[in-house]
Specification:
The chain is of the alpha+beta class. The chain is built from one helix and two strands. Strands 1-2 form a two-stranded antiparallel sheet.
Amino acid sequence: MQAIADDVGKTLAAASTMSGELADTLDGKKKVDAAKEVGKLISKRLQEIGVGAVVFDRGRYLYHGG
């Protein structure tokens, strides 16, 4: 998952299940639970650099989240 500033074309933060902070803690977790942890990590990283709001853009694909 990436957070990108479209206006400047710069990646602000990124996180995945292979991120060092998460890799060891996800053993045995379901995919949905692992995805939640990735979301929390990228949120934390964005807050650390002062980003307070984001917009989900799935391009031509529908966003099915809640």
